[in-house]
Amino acid sequence: MIDFSLSEEQKHIQHMAKSFAKEHIRPYASQYDEEEKFPRDILEMAHKKGLTHLMYPKEFGGYGMNDPYIPLILAEELAWGCAGINTVITSSYLPAEAIFALGTREQQERFIPLFCDKENLRIGAMALTEPEAGSNVSSLKTRAVQVGDRYVINGTKKFIGNGGIADLHVVFAKVRDEDEKDTIAPFVVTNQEKKGLSILRKDKKMGIRATHTAEITLENVEVPLENRLSKGKNSREAYKGMLLMLNRTRPLVAAAAVGVAKAAFEYATEYAQNRVQFNKPIIEHQGVAFLLADMAVKIDAARLLTWQACAAGIHKTDNGFEASKAKLFSAETAREVTSNAVQIVGGNGYLRDHPVEKWMRDAKIFEIWEGTSEIQKLNISRYIQKFSSGKDGAHVY
Ligand SMILES: Cc1cc2nc3c(=O)[nH]c(=O)nc-3n(C[C@H](O)[C@H](O)[C@H](O)COP(=O)(O)OP(=O)(O)OC[C@H]3O[C@@H](n4cnc5c(N)ncnc54)[C@H](O)[C@@H]3O)c2cc1C
After folding, report:
1. Active-site positions?
2. Contact 94, 274 (CB under 8 A)
3. How remote is the CA of residue 389 from the centroid of ligand 1, in Å?
4. 207-258 pLDDT, tens per residue?
5. Any atom of ligand 1 within 6 Å of the Cβ of 170
6. Residue 314 pLDDT > 50, yes or no?
């Protein structure tokens, strides 16, 4: 039997994250959005509470909560408070996933504890996208060249969360190995190797404006050989590792999208109960009630797909099909639900006095980052083709 009830540990995290979002995020979210200010004070507080490193192994300084549903529950609740501030708090997860998916045990031991140091907050970044390499990551131009005992990296990275302000950047670059073939490999650039890495421009964004996003340049950035992740893997294996990383991070993005949608749904419901037009609360007009019904169904469906992607990640080596479905549907749900929440709040919803307009702006990002919705559809359709060409015919479940 499938049981969707949360374990005691999961409930505890949900409660802790919800209280943190209520007390420390939601009341300040619009201010950080207006000022486009990086919420370092909130991040420091979240770090002290362990929210930045709950799931990292105890031997690395984390809390050892290795239940893979925990980051999803956490992201949903924090994003309910603010999608941007959630992104800031959980930003080490992306580079950490790269280190877990593609790094050796020795590299994990060296880098993951940086994110778990209670006294010194360290910020992470994952730099894959480039001006000419967005959806098509194989067209990366950033290059790492081995010179003696170092790699020298040159290139430009675009739209990088925490770009230039992070203490640890995982930078993806092309590298030519002994077999004379180009491989895409991730390189860890810590504060020690940061010379030559600088911000070209800080992006001004539509939403998630509490996050820092920047275009960065790497000019002769030198890293020791042992900072290359996926060393010894050929281009095919390295690429597979990168997909594995995305399969793990996409459910996380999906969970945050669910959190934003939930926030908008709750707000619109309360508004509809109190707003009277034509002598009755607007929730009693079927047009509004049906919008809310659709919102409720889609939010639950998005969460279930997200949890399904997580479950598939536990039971299978490749959960790409489920991860893409969850990311696609949750992103579309967040966009639709937040837009309908603005609709229900009417003219007031269009004003900055109500948070729904911010949530609508915030929600759009989920259809773009970590692979656009079109790229998720491409991915899903490739799995369908693969399954349908199997000897048992088309069976996708
Ligand atoms: C706020 C923000 C934060 C980000 N953070 C990071 C980060 O921390 N690290 C990082 O590496 N990247 C980050 N990104 C980059 C993000 O992942 C890319 O923007 C995204 O992958 C899309 O790439 P692109 O913008 O170059 O669009 P393009 O690839 O140019 O796509 C443009 C349009 O064409 C469509 N398209 C492209 N190819 C196809 C195809 N084959 N079939 C159908 N449609 C297609 C796309 O879906 C899209 O609609 C961030 C982006 C933003 C906006």
Report:
1. 370
2. no
3. 30
4. 999 999 999 999 999 999 999 998 777 777 888 888 888 999 999 999 999 9
5. no
6. yes
